[in-house]
Write a structure and sequence with these properties.
By secondary structure, the chain is of the alpha/beta class. The chain has helices at 10-21, 23-37, 155-172; strands spanning 46-48, 53-55, 58-59, 63-66, 69-71, 74-81, 86-88, 91-98, 101-103, 106-113, 118-120, 123-130, 135-137, 140-142. The longest helix is centred in the C-terminal third of the chain and has 18 residues, at 155-172. Residues 1-18 have a biased composition (Basic and acidic residues).
Length: 173
């Protein structure tokens, strides 16, 4: 009548707690695993070897490492110009690391010229680093959005043209 219930026994309690506890971490692990599997692994950078000569534009949302010669514009996320590389054209990337030679404009959020860099052209950047020994001929301009190409809204020139027209009509009175 007044016997001890099995719920109060230490051995039984541990079994009850461990059984529900085991599936819950498994579910949490499975839930954590799925989001981790959803993002794809970042693909490796595309490499243009030293013996490669490209004539034309290159455009990617990924990373490019250039060791050869490119005659044309390059657009990428991360662009690394190797020591033996030569680029003749405009370079646009979020991150630009120059170890070689560029003849043309460079636009990037972060631009870095290493000691072996040779740049002949303008650099438009948000952040820039120029190491001692780098050769640079051109102008440097900081912009909050250098990837946009420095394009200004069309409304500004229209507003400036409207003001002289108003002044001209007031002179006729």
């Amino acid at each position: 009548m007044f016997s001890k219930s099995k719920i109060n026994e230490p051995g039984h309690k541990a079994d009850d707690v461990s059984k529900p506890a085991m599936p819950e971490p498994s579910k949490a692990s499975a839930g954590d695993y799925k989001p981790a599997a959803t993002p794809k692994a970042k693909p490796p950078a595309s490499v243009l070897s030293a013996d490669l000569h490209v004539t034309g534009n290159l455009k990617t949302t990924g990373d490019i490492q250039v060791e050869g010669t490119v005659e044309g514009d390059i657009r990428a996320h991360l662009l690394t110009i190797g020591e033996s590389a030569t680029i003749k054209g405009e370079v646009v990337a979020d991150d630009v690391v120059v170890n070689g030679r560029i003849v043309g404009r460079v636009r990037g959020l972060k631009v870095r010229l290493t000691a072996t860099a040779r740049v002949e052209g303008d650099i438009i950047h948000k952040t820039i680093a120029i190491e001692s020994g780098a050769h640079f001929e051109g102008s440097v301009q900081r912009q909050d959005d250098p990837l946009n190409g420095g394009k200004r809204p069309v409304q500004q020139p229209g507003a400036q043209q409207a003001a002289p027209a108003a002044a001209a009509t007031s002179n006729n009175d």
